Amino acid sequence: MNKGKLLGFKNDRTPYDSDEIYAARTEMKLESSIVDAISVVASLSVDPGSPIEVKSVSQQIGSIKSGENALTPAKFDIKIDKNAKAGEYNLYLNLSYDYQKNAQITNADSVAQTYDVNHWYGIMNQNQILKIKVKNQADFEIVNTTGIIYPGGEGVVQIEIKNTGEEEARNVKAIINPSDPLSTTDSMAFLSTIAPGSTAVAKIKIKADSAAVPKMYGIDTVVRYENPDGDIVYSDTLQAPVEVKESGLFQRFFGWI
């Protein structure tokens, strides 16, 4: 919102005839536009080393008359680093705009109600500090995976998940989504509560197709949890490495393939 106010005028001399009075009154009306912001451009920046990145370029806001709001709000896309510590961070909003610095009436004719006018414009910059609060939250990474599967066989894979965030995660569930040639009939493991810095192990039965090529596979894993406010939150997709190992004589002897 443009909160600019015109407090008054100070005359430098007294008009002496009807044309000068007409010119003075007209000039006062034009001078009142000094508080209008013309061609406003808004830009957003952050401190060096901030975990916040401004993705948007400067925004053209248009002109804003005194006492009015911009027709459309300035919108900026920002990205907060996933490892950002909880706390308040500064955003710096810079507003640059033109304004009418002066207006001068010449050739005023009070009878014909005509005049010539000259305008002078200046550039103004204003800065505001905005605060953005990054809340504590849980975050997760897979720190270890154990279990070996053979082509055509099934085995229990243990996926160790660590809460690397700053907030407790409650009612935690690990949702497993393997893709061909791996599959599971048990795609969810209940892990209860994981405190910051603590780990929990999800145990999932994984089956490998008989045509599976022996190598390391990545299993998509999403952590579903409840934060202290009672909101349900889903983590980013994590990759759990699982090895499909070439069958040896022991597996062949017992017909495991």
TrEMBL record:
Organism's domain of life? Answer: Archaea
PANTHER family recorded: NPCBM-ASSOCIATED, NEW3 DOMAIN OF ALPHA-GALACTOSIDASE (PTHR35902:SF3), S-LAYER DOMAIN-LIKE PROTEIN-RELATED (PTHR35902)
Q: What is this protein called?
A: NPCBM-associated, NEW3 domain of alpha-galactosidase
